């Protein structure tokens, strides 16, 4: 039996309870978690913004040690450190055939499986976003684990599984920030902090962090921000003032709200680029008129999982970590136990802190 955070139904509070895990079958791996990050996507699953089968064990950003493997698994072995990959590509769908593995239509197929049972009543449990990282141990498909790169501490490696891949990819793959360009990052949570660092790594000449909380300025500057703007109705004007009246070359939105997406778009220069990372609800409608689209010539694009291929990008990120260019510790403002996840959700809603990290 292992302890886990179970979402019994959408809109219900998490329950910290014991679950029964089977031994890994063919093509499966059992992992003892070292750490799991508390991501806004987990909160979106609890309130129904994103939907997966329930009851489910949430958590999708994690790393740990392989306990055992099923038949046919050869790329990892017991004792290996691994990063969980919550969106493994199938390699055969149309998106995968185009090399766009982050858009794989089968990436979340495993979320509908029954992977464990509640100890109290034997009830079926689903693995959240495939990997069920909010548990002391989990059993996942073999393509959901990637070896931890050399030089990255196992606990810190959990952050690579979502926040860092997303933030880094938003800058380097989606927005394609070039050296010397100016960047604004909206939202200084875990992904926003990774995005700020990625912009610095890309050689951005000016990096403006935007958040509703004045208390996050020091945190943002530690991640690479050169200026800090407290979000308001005049945010686009403030950003244009900081950039000689032009606006930034690139804005990255990490919040997922219509008003923030619109502000990010308005904060870019004519011909600028806005990448939307934040996951918003269907009620968040963003509107533009035809004339402004023509006049400004801006680009607005979505970004899924940083448009990343984890197998390719993890070694790149590890090299940045080893070279001191990427500080994973900057993202973490709270280290908590499993039963601290509900409070971490509350802090997220209140806009407090960066990443909360569950340490097992």
Describe the structure.
The chain is α/β, with parallel strands linked by helices and 360 residues long. The protein has helices at residues 40-47, 94-97, 154-157, 163-174, 190-201, 217-222, 235-242, 258-266, 290-296, 310-322, 341-349; strands at residues 2-7, 15-20, 28-38, 56-57, 61-69, 81-84, 116-118, 124-125, 137-141, 145-147, 182-186, 206-211, 227-230, 248-253, 268-276, 299-302, 332-336, 355-359. Helix 4 (163-174) crosses helix 5 (190-201). The mean pLDDT is 96.
Radius of gyration: 20 Å
Mean model confidence by pLDDT: 96
Number of strands: 18
Give me the strand/helix succession. Answer: EEEHEEEHEEEEHHEHEHEHEHEHEHEHE
Count of separate DSSP helical elements: 11
Q: What is the helix content?
A: 25-40%
Beta-strand portion reads: 25-35%
CA-based shape: globular
Secondary-structure class: alpha/beta
Instruction: For the record, give the distance between the C-alpha atoms at the N and C termini, rounded to a whole number.
Output: 15 Å
Largest sheet: 7 strands, mixed
Low-confidence stretches: none
Secondary-structure topology with pairs:
Layout: E1 2-7, E2 15-20, E3 28-38, H1 40-47, E4 56-57, E5 61-69, E6 81-84, H2 94-97, E7 116-118, E8 124-125, E9 137-141, E10 145-147, H3 154-157, H4 163-174, E11 182-186, H5 190-201, E12 206-211, H6 217-222, E13 227-230, H7 235-242, E14 248-253, H8 258-266, E15 268-276, H9 290-296, E16 299-302, H10 310-322, E17 332-336, H11 341-349, E18 355-359
Parallel strand pairs: 11-12, 11-14, 12-13, 14-15, 15-16, 17-18
Antiparallel strand pairs: 1-2, 1-4, 2-7, 3-5, 3-9, 3-18, 5-6, 6-10, 7-8
Helix pairs in contact: 4-5
């Amino acid at each position: 039996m292992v302890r886990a955070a179970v979402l019994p139904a959408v809109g219900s509070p998490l329950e910290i309870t014991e679950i029964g895990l089977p031994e890994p079958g063919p093509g499966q791996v059992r992992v003892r978690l070292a750490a799991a990050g508390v991501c806004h996507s987990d909160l979106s699953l609890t309130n129904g913004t994103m939907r997966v089968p329930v009851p489910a064990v949430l958590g999708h950003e994690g790393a740990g040690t392989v306990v055992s493997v099923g038949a046919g698994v050869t790329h990892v072995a017991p004792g290996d450190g691994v990063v969980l990959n919550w969106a493994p590509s199938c390699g055969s769908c149309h998106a995968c055939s185009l090399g766009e593995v982050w858009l794989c239509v089968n990436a979340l197929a495993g979320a509908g499986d029954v992977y464990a049972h509640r100890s109290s009543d034997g009830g079926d449990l689903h693995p959240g976003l495939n990997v069920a990282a909010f548990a002391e141990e989990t059993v996942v498909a073999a393509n959901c684990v990637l070896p931890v790169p050399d030089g990255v501490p196992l606990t810190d490696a959990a952050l690579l599984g979502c926040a860092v891949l997303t933030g880094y990819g938003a800058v380097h793959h989606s927005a394609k920030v070039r050296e010397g360009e100016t960047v604004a990052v909206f939202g200084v949570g875990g992904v926003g902090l990774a995005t700020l660092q990625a912009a610095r790594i890309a050689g951005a000449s000016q990096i403006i962090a935007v958040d509703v909380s004045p208390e996050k300025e020091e945190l943002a500057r530690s991640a690479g921000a050169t200026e800090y703007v407290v979000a308001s109705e005049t945010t686009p004007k403030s950003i244009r003032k900081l950039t000689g009246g032009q606006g930034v070359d690139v804005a990255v939105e990490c919040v997922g709200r219509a008003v923030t997406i619109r502000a990010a778009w308005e904060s870019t220069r004519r011909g600028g680029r806005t990448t939307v990372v934040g996951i918003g609800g269907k009620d968040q409608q963003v509107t533009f008129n035809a004339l402004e689209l023509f006049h400004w010539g801006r680009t607005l694009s979505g970004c899924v999982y940083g448009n990343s291929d984890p197998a390719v990008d993890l070694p790149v990120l590890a090299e940045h970590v080893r070279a001191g260019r990427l500080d994973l510790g900057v993202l973490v403002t709270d280290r908590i136990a499993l039963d601290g996840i509900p409070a971490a959700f509350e802090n997220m809603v209140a806009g407090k802190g960066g990443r909360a990290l569950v340490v097992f």
